[in-house]
Amino acid sequence: xxxxxxxxxxxxxxxxxxxxxxxxxxxxxxxxxxxxxxxxxxxxxxxxxxxxxxxxxxxxxxxxxxxxxxxxxxxxxxxxxxxxxxxxxxxxxxxxxxxxxxxxxxxxxxxxxxxxxxxxxxxxxxxxxxxxxxxxxxxxxxxxxxxxxxxxxxxxxxxxxxxxxxxxxxxxxxxxxxxxxxxxxxxxxxxxxxxxxxxxxx
Length: 202
What we know:
The protein has helices at residues 2-37, 41-65, 71-85, 92-109, 115-125, 135-138, 140-149, 154-162, 167-198. The radius of gyration is 18 Å and the shape is elongated. The protein contains nine helices and no strands.
């Protein structure tokens, strides 16, 4: 019995280490893409879509190597908390938490082992940063005043204001989910071609 418990504890420890690695890797993807996209208004609006595309393999590896409750939620909320600390509007955190919970429930309903449910869970997960962009439309005056106060130029604010009619929000959401879907397809091919042969994933 104690031997079995020991093996279980070792397995759980390995899963937690893997969770930490892939959560950190997802955060790096977010930070690098965010840094590149932030100064350019069109790229700023495309940020969630680009992260959704690039982050897919990291997310799927997270679910594969750490099939337990908690890591998905943490991965979704961590970037939101960072944005809050950087001066973003508080609404970014509840949205990150909401989509993290939805993604975790969907993946968990398949025991974190269903490729289909894991893929669907990612399509919700990749909306975790949308809350940071909502104020462009729902708190417009406050958002642009706050953006100026955080050191962005008047040119950036004017350019962003000119390319954000209300329908752009819908385009952002659809594009993010679409890029997430493409990211999942690319990831599955990549896993099949390289990682399965190497024994990294089953």
